[in-house]
Amino acid sequence: MPRSVNHVASKARRKKILNRTKGYFGKRKNVWTVAKNTWEKGQQYAYRDRKNKKRAFRSLWITRINAGVREYGLSYSSFMGMVAKKGIELNRKTLADLAMNNPAAFKAIVDLVKK
After folding, report:
1. CATH superfamily to which 7-114 belongs
2. Cα–Cα distance for residue pair 101/92, rounded to 1 Å
3. Tens digits of per-residue pLDDT, 56-77?
4. How far apart are the first and last CA of the chain?
5. 3-class DSSP state of 3
6. What's the pTM?
7. How confident is the model at residue 3 (pLDDT cuts 50, 70, 90)?
8. Share of residues in the chain with pLDDT > 90 (%)
């Protein structure tokens, strides 16, 4: 009896990966094993970098807040300590946005914290 293989399903599985690797350079787009390995590695990078993106943005916000607060003679850590003590519930993203785009509002927060 001949061996039975489901070529329809296996071809569809390969085609799915090859469609996802369109636009890659050289053998990465059309050789099955190379394309599969490249796509899988890309998925690993995507998973890792979704986490790293959050880390990078938090670091950026901290830098912006620090730069904004230095104008008023404070450091980032002392400012954030005072913000927590005063019970101001603004996150770093909002504070960084205020420091960059609305200096008057940021100065009001700094003055409120300094009292």
Report:
1. Ribosomal protein L20, C-terminal domain (1.10.1900.20)
2. 14
3. 999 999 999 999 999 999 999 9
4. 89
5. coil
6. 0.78
7. confident
8. 94
Q: Is the pLDDT of residue 24 over 90?
A: yes
Residue 1 vs residues 4, 8: alpha-carbon distances, Å? 9, 20
Helices (H), the chain: 7-20, 32-70, 76-86, 92-101, 103-114
Give φ, ψ of 71 to 5 degrees. -65, -25
Please enumerate in sequence order all residues whose Cβ is within 8 A of that of 28, keeping only pairs 6 or more positions apart, or say none.
21, 34, 35, 38
CA distance 34 to 28: 5
Which sequence spans correspond to the domains of the chain? Answer: 7-114
Tell me how far apart the alpha carbons of residues 73 and 107 are, in angstroms, rounded to a whole number.
12
**Cα(60)–Cα(29) distance, integer angstroms:** 36
**Which has the closest alpha carbon to 58: 46, 42, 70, 76?**
76
Which structure tokens are listed for 68?
A: 């904004």
Which position has the token pair 């599969």? 36
